[in-house]
Amino acid sequence: MNKYYFSHDVLLHQMKDEFVFFKIINNIIDISEIVFVSDIVANFYKYNRDSIFTIDEFTNFICSEYEVSFSTAKRDVEDIVSKLEETKIIICE
Known about the structure:
Blueprint: E1 4-6, E2 10-15, E3 18-25, E4 28-37, H1 39-48, H2 55-65, H3 70-86, E5 90-92
Antiparallel strand pairs: 1-5, 2-3, 3-4
Helix pairs in contact: 2-3
């Protein structure tokens, strides 16, 4: 089972009711690579930004916060993680 973690080179920022990740390059925020995320992802990040996690752990977090089946949440998490991996916000160990 793959293990993941959030890059240490990102910053989460809330702008009104939206959440965005900014990349940090050489201690400077790079506004050319803004990634918008849901409040679900933002909440998971807040609790797990320094943790290693699996897809199932991320899925369990969502299931504990929202009324959703494990299988539905897992499909969504797999999609979220894949997209955040592409942008290097989430790293696979």
